[in-house]
Structure formats: structure tokens, C-alpha cells
Amino acid sequence: MQAMQRPVLLLVVVVLAAAIAASAQGPTAAPATPAPTTPTPATPAAPAPAAGTTNITGVLAKAGQFNTFIRLLRSTGVASQIDNQLNSSGGGLTVFAPTDNAFTSLPSGTLNSLSDQQKNALVQFHVLSTAIPMSQFDTVSNPLRTQAGNNSPGQYPLNVTSEGQQVNISTGVVNATVDNAIYSGDNLVVYQVNKVLLPAALFGAPAPAPSPLAVPAKKGKTPASVAEAPDADASPDATASLAAARATGGGLAAVLALAGVWWGL
How many angstroms separate the CA atoms of 260 and 262, rounded? Predict the structure, then answer.
């Protein structure tokens, strides 16, 4: 009898334990509803550079040894002007880029002596408004017109001559040499030059001062003139004789003729 009651008691204990545990946990909570969220607008990405754009300072920086020219291009605004011309028009440009050593070779204070406008003109003088490959320099018509403007003598003329593989540049102030092409594209050619191209309008020798006018020497009577002057008291015959003597030549003949007239009197 007791053996039969034990399983029943054990079952009752298990049922009671389960009921107590369930009541301790309480009612099952309903799943929480997520609060509505306001979508955050996405930040637009910066526009990527257009394919094929050219940056003149980037070209020079990649080549190296053009730091001074890069600073001038940026400070004068010519860098932005070149980039705009290259990327917004179908035209081409040629840039002559002096090396840092070329600027170091200038007399001390050369750049500091220029105004902002003159620095701009100096940089523009290194830019041609057409792309000229190395092989075409022997066909150009001198003087070339740079973006500095007037190419008349004494202003901003640029003369280029080609002898075999060597290209020489003359400004009227300096003679430079094209060392090599550091960039060559469809609309831009950049050449390294060994000197800063100094235009005559900014660095030309001043015109020579006019020479002083010569003071004309005072003309005085020569002894011959004095000897040949007729005497105020001379008679008409004496005067006529003196005139005849002058015609036949010589101061001595005049004196002799005059003496003969007086002797006849």
C-alpha cells in the first residue's frame, strides 16, 4: 500500500512545484512595439573630379623641383586661370616652367621688387595660348605672343629657335634653353626651362639718355678775312682791283693789287 502511495505523492509534489514556479514568473509580457524613427537624410557625397581634367600645379608637383613657380602660379591666380582654360574650352596651352635653380640664379630681390600686377605678367609670359609639341618649334612664327599680351619689341616678345634636338628661347633680356618636356597631353604641353623668362617690358635696359647738344663754336674773323677786308677809305678803283685779285686767288695777290693802285695815285 505504501509502495503505491509513493509514486502518487511524488507526482503531486512535481505538479505543485511546477504550479508554484509558474505563479512566481507572473504573466508573460507582450513583445514591445518599437518606437517610430525619423529617417536621417543621407549626406550627399562630394562630386568626384571629372575624368580627364588637368591640374597644372599637380603636373608640376609630380615632376618636382618647381616649388617657386607653383607658388607664383597660385599667388597670382594664374593656376586657376590655366585649369579653367584647359577644362572648359577646346584650346590648348604651352607652359614654360623654370626650375627652382633658375629662380635661385636671379639677382637677390628680383621677385620682391615686382608689384602684384607685374608678377602676374611675369607668370603669364611663360604661357602660350596653344599647345606646341617639341617637333613643331621649328615651324612657329616669331615673335610668339604669350598670355602676357603685347609682343612688340620692348614689351613681351618671345622668340623660339630650334636647332636639331635643342630649342632655344630669347626674350630680349635672357636666352634660355628648353631642357625637356615634363608633360605632354592633348591640350597641354609643359616644358622645363633652365632660366626664368624675363620680359623686356619689366626687365629691359632703360633707353639711353639723349646726348647733349653740341654748342656751336663762335666764328671769328680769320687773319685772311681781316687782310682781305677793303679799306673804308679806298677808292672805287682800289676796291675793284681788290675784287679782281680775290677772283684770281690768294691774299698776297690782293695786297699787291692794292699797292699798285695806291702807287698809281
Answer: 5
